Amino acid sequence: MSNLLWLTDEQMERLRPFFPKSHGKPRVDDRRVLSGIIFVNRNGLRWRDAPKEYGPAKTLYNRWKRWGDMGVFARMMEGLAAASPEPKTIMIDATYLKAHRTATSLRSKKGGATD
């Protein structure tokens, strides 16, 4: 796959303060794993479909799960948003829905009563 995502040195330096301290065994390469996690989530892939360049899918999933449970990713997002000089705009969802009048479940059916 030629369009893999790799975090830059600058991006890694901005994220590094949010990493939990490593206890005991050193962690697998943070850049490779975080780049893989972002790639999987951005593209809506299953963990097992992650490109091999990011390492074992189990490693990606375990880091995502462990750091997610610890709140590491939430702190990263909050910290990056707070450090941003730009005005903050939060977009929850850009979905536009329109229901047709025939889609309602309240229409009476033949022989049935409505509320």
UniProtKB/TrEMBL annotation:
InterPro entries: IS402-like_dom, Transposase_6_like. Coiled coil: none annotated. Residues 7-77 form the Insertion element IS402-like domain. PANTHER family: BLL5188 PROTEIN (PTHR46637:SF1), TIS1421-TRANSPOSASE PROTEIN A (PTHR46637). This is Transposase. The lineage of its organism: Bacteria, Pseudomonadati, Pseudomonadota, Alphaproteobacteria, Rhodobacterales.
